[in-house]
Amino acid sequence: KTEATVCTHEEAASLHWRRWIGAARLSVGGSELDGPFLVQVCPFRLFLVDITPVYKEDEELKTDSDDLVEVCGEDVPPPEEDEFETLERVMEVRIGRKGATGAVTTVYAVEADGDPNANFDPSRQPGEVQYLMKWKNWSHIHNTWETEETLKQQNVKGMKKLDNFKKKDQEKKKWLKAASPEDVEYFNCQQELMDDLHSQYQLVERIIGKRMLPPIVFKSAAGYPDYLCKWQGLSYSECSWEDGALIARKFQKCIDEYMSRNQCKTIPSRECKVTALNAGHLSKQMKPRSLYNQLNV
């Protein structure tokens, strides 16, 4: 005997996801159920998840694209790689010159070609609200200033993060109006410290790996390899592969230090025969677990 239960998306999230199959219409216990459904077959129980589109009017119940979970069966091909970028975090907000947005506002573009927002006076020139964006799977060195309109034109994902930032910014302005001068001064000091910390995120602390991509996917200029960079103020989990030409132009000293460490005869590396022979004799507690030891340098 099999008991059937029809549950919602939220209720299904608490179940152990095993194998799901699709069904447009089901007959359970003599009753006809209109789908579409996702069906999970478990011992003595049949879970049916109604995946009929549900339209929610409440603003608080809106689901961001990042919160969606895609379930693919064995016969369903995996989804293609995302064509659009995803917002990870909104860093700052400003009133900037119209059009001073996009790739020309990255740190390296500003250093090479100048700041498109330089000498802008919002009291004399027409401006627009711009947000400094941290992009998912991109390091802080690639942060760009964007407007809400440019984000919509690019069909970026994660726009809910921008809405949340705007709400918090309004609450902050409301609090500043009612706060005491001492509280405002303390807040400004904390803001300056955070700005200094964020600026460190764009500085390479050290290089811990390199790779030379095949000619088919090789994109770096002048034959530079990609470098795995550890950023100041961030953990090793935030390391990212960066274009060799860009790193050589801005952080050549870090490349030189990396090459010096690899060529040093007194510092062991993965290529050292002694390290390879003795690694198996270390206990699990003594074995290093850093990201550096997992790289082919």
Could you characterize the architecture of this molecule?
This protein has 8 helices and 10 strands. It is an alpha+beta fold and 297 residues long. It has 3 domains: 3-54, no CATH class; 87-180, OB fold (Dihydrolipoamide Acetyltransferase, E2P), CATH 2.40.50.40; 204-294, OB fold (Dihydrolipoamide Acetyltransferase, E2P) (Beta Barrel), CATH 2.40.50. The strands form 3 sheets. The protein has a 4-stranded mixed beta sheet with strand order 1-4-3-2. Strands 5-6-7 form a 3-stranded antiparallel beta sheet. The protein is globular. Mean pLDDT is 74; it is low at 9-21, 40-47, 49-63, 65-74 and 279-297.
> Which term fits the overall shape?
globular
CATH class of the largest domain: Mainly Beta
Q: Kindly state the mean pLDDT as a whole number?
A: 74
Number of strands: 10
Low-confidence stretches: 9-21, 40-47, 49-63, 65-74, 279-297
Q: Strand sequence of the main sheet, in spatial order?
A: 1-4-3-2
- The CATH architecture category of the largest domain equals Beta Barrel
The computed structural class is: alpha+beta
Query: What is the count of structural domains?
Result: 3
For this entry, give a set of tags.
alpha+beta, OB fold (Dihydrolipoamide Acetyltransferase, E2P), single chain, 3 domains, three-stranded antiparallel beta sheet, four-stranded mixed beta sheet, 297 residues, 24% strand
